[in-house]
Amino acid sequence: xxxxxxxxxxxxxxxxCSDRIIRLKELSHLIALSRSTIxxxxxxxxxxxxxxxxxxxxxxxxxxxxxxxxxxxxxxxxQSFNTSISN
Length: 87
Description:
With 87 residues, the chain is α+β, with helices and mostly antiparallel strands. The chain is 40% helix and 18% strand. The protein is globular. 3% of the residues are buried. InterPro entries: AlpA, Prophage_regulatory_activator. This is AlpA family phage regulatory protein.
């Protein structure tokens, strides 16, 4: 069974459903970035390009999604990086 906790789906045991696919709207809400910023993070020609940003999965001809586990790992790496800079 799943429940909402701090804006992300978790199992009753407290673990994230890492294989769950999330769409752009949920990704935007989860990481607090706009649609255009997310696409900039994926675009090597953008000033805001982030090579560590998780690659999307193609779900159909015009649909993409991201694995929640990849997003959570990316967030954790950002937190670790920011902690190491501030120390």
